[in-house]
Every structure is written in C-alpha cells, then in structure tokens.
Protein 1
Amino acid sequence: MSILKVARMGHPVLRQIAEPVDPADIKSGEMQDLIEDMLETMYEYNGVGLAAPQVHVSLQLALVGGDEDDDGNPIVRPVFNPVITPTTDTLFGMYEGCLSVPGLRGWVERPVSIHVAYLDADGERVERDLEGFPAVVFQHECDHLEGKLFLDRMKDMRRLAFESEAERFLPIDTMIDGRDV
Ligand code: ZN
C-alpha cells in the first residue's frame, strides 16, 4: 500500500468530469490496489472521504465515510459510478472542508436526504437512502467526480474561513435543522 499525493485546488484534474468505471474492471488487482491506496491516503490525512480525482485518477470512484454500522463503528464505502437523487427539498448546512482545499472551511447547504445507487468494491449494484452527515459526505465526494469543489456550492463567500478561525469564531456544530453533527 502507498500514500498517494493529493491534488490541490488549481490542479486541472479536480475540474475534469471523471470517466465511468467499466464494471468488469472493478475486481481487477489494479482497481483493488487503488482502493487500498486511497484508503491509506484518506486515513493519513484524516479525511472522511476521498475521490479518485483527488489522487490524480479521473475515474468515477470515491471512498465515502461519515456513516456507522449497526454497532456504531465507522464505515467507509468504496463507491463506483454513483447516481444521487435527492428525496427532499429540505436543506442541511454545515461548514465543509476538503483535502484538496486545505486550511479552509465554507458553509454549504445540500439536500438532507438522498437516494444513492452505485457499484460496490465487488462490482455489485447497491441502493440505499442516506440522511444528514453521511448524505453530505456522499454529495461532497460525488461532486469531485463532476469536477466540482465545495466552494462552487457556496451561496455566501463571506462564510468562507480559515480552519483555525472557523474553529474559534463559527458555530461549526450548528446545522440548519438544529441537530448536532
Ligand atoms: Zn473534497
């Protein structure tokens, strides 16, 4: 396994539309190695998700964390060729950060619940409903596959801050619907 170099804002790979992955390639050694390397990279930099374009690979693959199994253990899902359908008009806001935009936090609002369909690491089709923080992470990672960064989703650039100032001055734990992150 290896730790991969993370592309930062300004690198053109972050603005490309990522190529869909051929389902027949998912179980290849090369693709499974990429998943392992991305996992190691995500943990190294303490991320809650990581998309392949962030490690200079323009494919529709993302690791999506922010969710827990039934026993409360954190889970990270490898996701290929995802499709998101919002299931509500209700928005959920939080200060997002990104390994490709280090040091910054910005207020972004996204649909609070979504239906997602994707292929998992075995190439099996999965559908599930996500709500709250896991839904935010899923949408943030899938934006990377479309060449978008969280900054593009911000409606008010005055709500952009450096991480340390955000921690000091901003209500980082406040979400639009009043629940805690
Ligand atoms: Zn990101």
Protein 2
Amino acid sequence: MAQKDCIFCKIAGGEIDSEIVYQDDRVVAFQDANPQAPVHILIIPRKHIPSLKDFSEEDFDLLADIHRVAVKLADKEGLTEEGFRLVNNCGSQGGQTVDHVHYHLLGGRQLTWPPG
Ligand code: 5GP
Ligand code: ZN
C-alpha cells in the first residue's frame, strides 16, 4: 500500500521523523514542516492516493474520516470558537507539491480570502 519514495508514506510508516499528532488504522495527522499559521497540521490517509482527482469510489469514505479527525484536532487546538480552514490542494494549478493526498488544517490567525 505504501509507495516507495513517497515522503508522506514514509512519515505514516514512521520511516521519516515527524511530529505526529493523531493516528489510527486509516488516517495520520502531523505537524507541517513549514507552518503557514500558528496551527498547521497535515491530515492524510495511510493509503497512498496521489491526489483527490485519483480517488476511486471506494476511497471517498476516507474523506469522512479525514474530516472527523480535522474537527477533533481543531477542537483540541482550541480553534472551534474562532474557526479554522481545511484545505486540499489538487494538482499543479491547485498548488499541490506532495503527491500523496493531504488536507491542511490551518488556524490560530485571521485567514484571508481569496487565497493567492
Ligand atoms: P501542498 O503544497 O502539496 O498542498 O502541501 C505540502 C505540504 O507538505 C507543505 O505545506 C509542506 O510544508 C509540507 N511538507 C513537505 N515535506 C514535508 C516533510 O517532510 N515533513 C512535513 N512534516 N511536512 C512536509
Ligand atoms: Zn504516499
């Protein structure tokens, strides 16, 4: 299931160090190495799926798992009252730089819209 040379598969498998804040059998969440906000956590499925556009029908349940983890982590980080952002960058024009699907949980400061 893990893809050789995928940095996020290696993080999920413990081969590369990261600050993991949550994990279960389907989802792993860890601190972004280059945080863009006081809270910046990446949430990924353990399954190697390159991008949201590559999801097959059976994969979509993972999005519910990821959202559930995001809401719980946001609460744990104290973001529930002020709010937060959950973002997926898909493909090159979407700004995706790591080809293992991931969601950014961002919060702790006023975020602007539209994004750049
Ligand atoms: P993307 O641009 O693909 O949406 O987001 C990739 C994110 O992964 C970026 O926010 C970047 O800082 C983060 N990132 C890239 N490499 C690593 C790494 O090795 N460890 C961690 N913790 N985050 C990483
Ligand atoms: Zn991967």
